[in-house]
Amino acid sequence: MTVVGIIANPAAGRDIRRLVAHASVFDNNEKVNIVRRALLGLEAAGVRQVWLMPDAYDIGRKALDNLRLDLDVRWVEMSPRFEESDSFEATARMVEAGARTLITLGGDGTNRAVAKACGTIPLMPISTGTNNAFPFMVEGTLAGLAAGLTAMGMVPLETATTSTKRIELWRNGKLEEIALVDAVVYRERFIASRAIWRLDEVKLAVFTRAEPWNIGLSAIGGYLETTPLAADEGLYVEIGEGGCEVLAPVAPGLIHPVKVAAHRRVRLEERIVVDCAPALIALDGERKVMLKAGEPIELCVTASGPLVIDMRRTLRYAAAVGAFIRASFPTDGKALRSS
Predict the structure, then answer these.
(1) Which residues 6+ apart lie within 8 Å of 334 measured at CB?
(2) Cα separation of 69 and 50, whole Å?
(3) Segment 274-333, tens digit of pLDDT
(4) With 80 as the cut, is the pLDDT of residue 222 above it?
(5) Closest to 41 in 3D by CA, of 65, 60, 10, 69
(6) Which of 28, 34, 90, 148 has a 20 to 30 Å separation from 171 between CA atoms?
(7) How is domain 166-302 classified at the CATH fold level?
(8) Residue 216: which of 272, 116, 286, 266 has the closest Cα?
(9) Which fold has domain 3-164+306-337?
(10) What's the pLDDT at 55?
(11) pLDDT value, residue 252
C-alpha cells in the first residue's frame, strides 16, 4: 500500500516578523483547508494510506470533518511537544512507516526540521510560513496530486523531483545542524525571539541559493550575483563597510539597504571557519546555535539537501501520457508507465 505523510505546522508564519515587518499571519483554518484539498488530491492519484502529524490546533482532524474519503488515514503515535522537534519526530516515524512522499505545510524552518529526518523521501513543500525561500506557494489540490503521482510511481523520480543543497554546521568534527537556505552569524548572546530581522547585527552569511525573487536574507545574494548559482556552488557574504550597498527585501514589506564588505561563490564541501564568539548562528531565519569561545564552527554547502517534487513538471508529464483523460487513475501505476 502506497503511503504519503502530511506534516502541517500550526506555528508556521507566527514569529516576530509579523510585528516588526509586514508579514501576513497564515491562518490555521486555511491550513485545514489546504490539508483537506491535499487529501482529495492524494485520493484521486490512487494513494490509499496517509499519515498525519498530531498538532495543537488539530489541523488534520479538522481537515477530515465531513470529508468522505477512500483513504486509510492514520496518526503518528507520538507525544507532541508543540515545537520544532515534532516535525522531526513525525517525519522519522512516517519514514519508518514506509512513506513514499511527504507533504509539508510551513516555512523554511519547518522544512529544515523535516529535511533532517526524511532521507531520500521526496518533499512537496507548501508555503505557509513567514520567509519562504524553500517551499512554494501552491494550491493544495495540485500539491496532493503531484505528491500522489510521485508516490505511486506514475511519474519517474528523475522527472518528478529536483535535488537541493544544504548548509552543514560542524563543531568538534561532528555534524551538529543543517540549513536549507541560509546560515547567518549574528552578533548576539541570546536566542530571544529567534527570528532574524535586525541586519546591523549580522556579521556574515552563507547561502545555498541566491534568487532575486525570494524574501529574506538570501535575496541579498540574489541582487549581488548577476548569474544564478550553479548546482555545485554556494555563496558567502560578509556584511559591513568597504564594499557595496544592496537594496534587498529582507522581510515582508521591509526593503533595506545592506552594506556588503565582500562576497564570493564557494564550492561544495568548502569549509568556512567561524570563530567570533560570542555570537549566534541562525539557520533558515531562526537563531539556533550559540558560538562558544574556543569552539570554532565550520560551515559548508553540500549536495545533501532533500529531494523536492517539481509540481509543474510532474503534472506536465502525467498530462502528456494521458493520465487525466482516464475515468480514474490506475492503482498500481502500470498503465501510466506503459503509455
Answers:
(1) none
(2) 11
(3) 998 889 999 998 889 999 888 999 999 999 999 999 999 999 999 999 888 865 555 555
(4) yes
(5) 69
(6) 90
(7) Tumour Suppressor Smad4 (2.60.200)
(8) 286
(9) Rossmann fold (3.40.50)
(10) 92
(11) 80
Closest CA to 62 of 33, 42, 94: 33
Copy the grid coordinates of residue 199: 541586519
Contact 253, 24 (CB under 8 A): no
Q: By the 8 A CB rule, do 67 and 36 touch? A: yes
Name the phi and psi angles at 305, rounded to 5. -70, 170
Which of 2-11, 138-147, 248-257, 297-306 bottoms out in mean pLDDT, i.e. has the lowest?
248-257
Alpha-carbon span 43 to 63, nearest angstrom: 14
Amino acid at 203: K
Site of grid cell 529536483: 162
Residue 225's pLDDT is 87
pLDDT at 19 over 50: no
CA 132 to chain centre: 8
Number of Cβ within 10 Å of residue 252's Cβ equals: 16
Q: Which residue type is seen at 86?
A: D
Which pLDDT tens digit goes with each residue over 128-181?
976 578 998 999 999 999 999 999 999 999 999 999 999 999 999 999 999 999
Question: 13: left (phi > 0), else alpha (psi -120 to 50), else beta?
Answer: left
Q: How many whole angstroms from its chain centre is CA 322?
A: 31
The DSSP 8-state label assigned to residue 13 in this structure reads T
CA 286 vs CA 145, 166, 204, 256: distances in Å = 31, 16, 15, 19
Helix (H) or strand (E) holding 95: helix 84-96
Closest C-alpha to 237, from 318, 182, 309, 159: 182
